[in-house]
Design brief:
Layout: H1 3-17, E1 29-36, H2 42-58, E2 63-68, E3 75-82, H3 85-93, H4 95-105, E4 113-117
Antiparallel strand pairs: 1-3, 1-4, 2-3
Helix pairs in contact: 2-4
């Protein structure tokens, strides 16, 4: 599927559900994270992101997906929905997750571009 087909829904998702500024702890937490791996590391990086997403879903995320861009295969986007900010923070604070994030960070071209927020009402 060409990138243009998933890019538009992704942008719509970001515009409709993300608000700027700090999120309230009791609201659903929406997070969009852009990930760019070194070109030679995209396959291993993609595997690690899939593992991160699977662990997130098992740890209470409402939804957690890792999506690869077709035309630039070293670019990924993580889409996460958590019941609240505390759930997400508890997930990220786990030692296993920190080790996995350290492994992912070693493969990156640039740092994560993370955009957390809450539902716009």
């Amino acid at each position: 599927m060409p990138a243009k087909y998933w890019l538009l829904p992704l942008l719509a998702f970001a515009l409709l559900v993300l608000a700027y500024g700090p999120a309230r702890a009791d609201q659903e937490q929406f997070v969009v994270t852009y990930v760019e791996f070194l070109p030679a590391k995209e396959d291993r990086g993609g595997e690690l992101l899939e593992r991160l997403a699977a662990l997130g879903r098992r740890s209470g995320a409402i939804s957690f997906t890792a999506n690869q861009e077709i035309q630039r295969p070293n670019f990924f986007v993580l889409l996460e929905i958590w019941p609240d900010a505390t759930s997400r923070q508890n997930f990220e604070d786990q030692a296993q997750i920190q080790r996995l994030l350290d492994r992912i960070n070693r493969l990156l071209e640039v740092p994560f571009d993370e955009r957390p927020g809450t539902l716009i009402e």
